[in-house]
Amino acid sequence: MRVPRPDEKNIGRKDFFKEGPLSLLRAFMVAAREEPPKRTPRREDLPLLRPPGAAPESEFLSLCEGGGACADVCPANAILLISRKDEPGRDAPMLEPSVAACVLCDDLACMKACPSGALKPLEREMIRIGIAKIDLEECFAWSGLDEFCDYCVERCPIGEAAIRMETREDKRGPVMGESCVGCGVCEFHCPDYPAAIRVFELSAEK
Q1: Percentages of the chain per state (helix, strand, coil), in multiples of 5
Q2: What is the pTM of this model?
């Protein structure tokens, strides 16, 4: 069964009344910021996020053949083949959640398709692609611009163990749990621009 891309939303009656206002709010916020929207970062400045099951970076680069088998089987088209810095002309897989997020498909197909061992089969709960962090000042919910915004929580494939809504004083917004795998679904669906929740490399966790 094909897994929907992160941007393929099943909009029912409930979601219809939520999607419309938030889309308008997003457009308004982009236009009304006191300063121009931040520039989209250059790809070389983006966090280095490998597909699920990636070996430690040095081992990953020594093993990855750059054939793109993982990208070919990704049902969400979330795996990009990017030219390597250490070996120009040779590609390696990378995730860019703002473009397309890993949906943690039922088959975890990329790990099974990798012929070289650069992606090692893992149980779903053991996957750690990166770590999501919330900018409380930019978040619609925490900033008070939209107390009902909970896209990141509703769309998370892991659930409340990874991200949940929490009330603090007179505000309510998302907080990260301990089970975030860094899939990027939250970043992809955040209605703010740039996204108020972003996935960073695991080295930036502390």
Answers
A1: 30, 15, 55
A2: 0.77
CATH number, domain of 170, equals: 3.30.70
Torsion of CA 135, 127, 59, 51, to 10 degrees: -70
98, 125, 152: which is the final residue of a domain? 125
Q: Which residues contact 123 (CB under 8 A, 6 or more apart)?
A: none
Q: Which residue's entry shows tokens 């049902």? A: 75
What does pLDDT average to in each consecutive run of 10 residues of the chain (206 residues)? 46 46 54 44 75 96 96 96 89 95 95 96 93 95 88 94 93 94 96 93 68
Give domain status of residue 159, yes or no.
yes
Domain count, the chain: 2
- Within 10 angstroms of residue 163's Cβ, the number of other Cβ atoms is 25
